[in-house]
Amino acid sequence: MALPGHIAEICRWWLLCALLVAAFGKTFAFARFRAELAASFPELRGGVAAVAPAIVAVEWLLVVLIACGGDPARGGMAAAAALFAAMTLVVAVALVQDRTVVCRCFGGAGHAVSGYDLLRNGLLIGAAGFGAWMPTVSGVDVFAQIALAAIGFMLFQLSTNLRDIATVLRIEAGLS
Question: Containing domain of residue 70, as a range?
Answer without folding.
Answer: 3-132+140-172
